[in-house]
Amino acid sequence: MSYAITLTTQDGQQLNFACETGQSIQDAAEAAGFFLPASCNAGSCGSCLGRCISGEYHLGNYTPSLLPANHKEQGDVLFCRTYPDSDLQLTTFYSAAQIHSSQQVARIAEIAKLELIAERTVLLVLQLLPDPEQGFAFEFEPGQFVELEVPELQLKRAYSIANTPNWNGRLDFLIRLQPHGQFSSYLQQNAKVGQQLWVEGPSGTFGMQKTGLNPRCFVAGGTGVAPFLSILQRMAESGEDYPVHLFLGVNNEREVFYQKELAALKERLPRLQVEICVWQPSDNWTGFSGTPADALTAYLAKTEILPDVFLCGPPLLIEAARQAALAAGVNSAQIVCESF
Length: 340
Prior knowledge:
Elements: E1 2-8, E2 14-20, H1 25-31, E3 49-54, E4 57-59, H2 71-74, E5 76-78, E6 82-84, E7 88-92, E8 107-118, E9 121-128, E10 145-150, E11 155-160, E12 170-176, H3 182-189, E13 196-203, E14 216-221, H4 226-238, E15 244-250, H5 259-268, E16 272-278, E17 288-289, H6 292-302, E18 308-313, H7 315-327, E19 335-339
Parallel strand pairs: 1-7, 14-15, 14-18, 15-16, 16-17, 18-19
Antiparallel strand pairs: 1-2, 3-5, 3-7, 4-6, 8-9, 8-13, 9-12, 10-11, 10-13
């Protein structure tokens, strides 16, 4: 049986396609020539988050933390895990410009810099090789991620881009070294300047949602600050004057990083406030002691205007911060999450 699917983007564009019984919305869209933002196609990354306005459907297996507890009432779905049981009316949280008409082709890049910038955190800078059609350019929206692949090791991982689009082909990544992690082991033991990687993407819709004039709170766990750095740099380039409060959390002072870069951003964005949150500080630490969720709770208790809240980090932090925002009265539509 075939069902009629109508997908309306954030900017009001409509896509119409058919979806067969047992076929996911994501696969049906691709079969019709609409390549929606996606990455894992397994319900584990949240890139394909959308909403069902009308119709019946069921969800396949997915990571529970990616959808709110009341997702059935709101109609929140993951397109890669959504199977229609009737005709469906769906909406996206991104614009039509983020939907491609063909599968994206991976680009080749060379490692230009690999530097340990804090305990267990490295800065990886890639230089794209010129593409016959695009040259060095690589188009993406601040907040998006790409998949980095080491072909000879059959190793692929997704990381958010920490800089903004440019004509030089430079891509910055902040990567936390995980014990026994395959990509972490590659970076520590095998990676060298000049080696080549494949870059596939961009993907994801984090940070691209249209918001009003509300203040913005960015809550980041460690290297979860990467997409916020991209967003903040774009705000500075565009001359945006929103009040922004960034809460950056680390476990201890040895993990604090990017202080000079954040200070430079504050000079370009006068209404940007940065609060470093250390979970297990030493006696010498004079900043905030606790998690970014704790700092967000304290901020929301004294602010007069409820902000739009953007969250990026480990699932436990995301859920704690999301609950803190909801408890303070922030509407769920004003909370945008990206977990890793």
